[in-house]
Structures are given as structure tokens and as C-alpha cells.
Amino acid sequence: AIDGTGLQQGAFLEGVPLAVTGDPVGTTGATWQSFFGVWHFPDGRNWVIGVPSQLNDRVVLEQPTDRVVLRFGTPIVDEPGPMEVYFDFAPDPSGDHWVANGLFRVPGTGFVGGLVVDGAVLDLGGGRLALEGEPLPPTIDSSPDVRWTFLRSPQINEAGDIAFVGTWGPPPDRFQNSAVLRNGLTVRTFDV
Questions:
Q1: Which of 67, 69, 88, 191 is deepest in the core (most CB within 10 A)?
Q2: What is the residue-averaged pLDDT of the chain?
């Protein structure tokens, strides 16, 4: 249901409310304010994604366990700062894996964007991490001055294969190339 402000006031599965505005957000101490959606998995688990009222936050909560899958400020493996904001959260069809892109707060420098899989920065092979500003894997470009500019729209399947859109280029034109990539390999390039 949508209220007069345009906010979704509940997370529903086949018309049955899983959570509504004012319900507790698991054991976080907060209550739900609005919702973005729900995923239902074959084993009966549900992941509800929404915004708690008491926190400047976005939470993915597993039901019925009340386990927080991801929220703003979640510590991420291989990253110097917590994930402050995340976008494009996507689970695999079984709910065993998830992927998201987000912004990490790096002390003294601000924010850097990147891709996270199951709580760790995506390793594209050869020690190359999926972080904006980092070098590309040699399978795409081996030049040391060519860096990721944007990493967006990640998806993951049950086998753990990850697809995303990446943009890169050498300085000063960091928007020279874009491609859809799967497991760090180019699937399709396109002009930016």
C-alpha cells in the first residue's frame, strides 16, 4: 500500500503483509518506515528491504530469522571503510548469495564506489578488486593507468556468476569505455 507521501507502507507476499510501517526491524531496535520490496526464496525465507524510521539507513532483513543481511555501515572485507550507502542490491534466486554496489567511506579521502558479494569486495582476479579508481584486470586492459570509473547494475546467479556494467579509461578521460562484464570478463562493449 502507498500512502499520501508516495512511500510504500508494507512488504507483502501474495497479499499477506510480512512487515508494515511501525513493525520492529528485527532486533535492531528500530521500526519500519517504508519499504522497497521483498524477495521470497524456495526454502521459505523472505528478505525484506526497507528504511527504518529511527536510523538514516536501509536494511535488508531475513525473515523469519530476523538476521540483518546488509545495512548502511556494514563492515566489508578488503575495504578500509564501512559501506555507507548501497544501491542495486540483488540476491541470487536461492537466497544463498547477494551482490550490491555501494559507497565506502575511506578515512581522510571521502568515498569510493565498488561492488560487494556476500560481504566482501568483488575480486576480479589477479588481486584486482572491483573498486572505482582501481586498475582493471588484465583480461580487460593491462595498462596501469587505466582505472574503473563506475561499477553499476550488479546481478548474481545461483552459481555465483556475477554480471555488472563497468566504465573505465585513462586520465583525463575516465569515461572512454563501457562494457557488460561477467566474472570480470567482457561480454559486450558499448560507446559511452
A1: 69
A2: 82
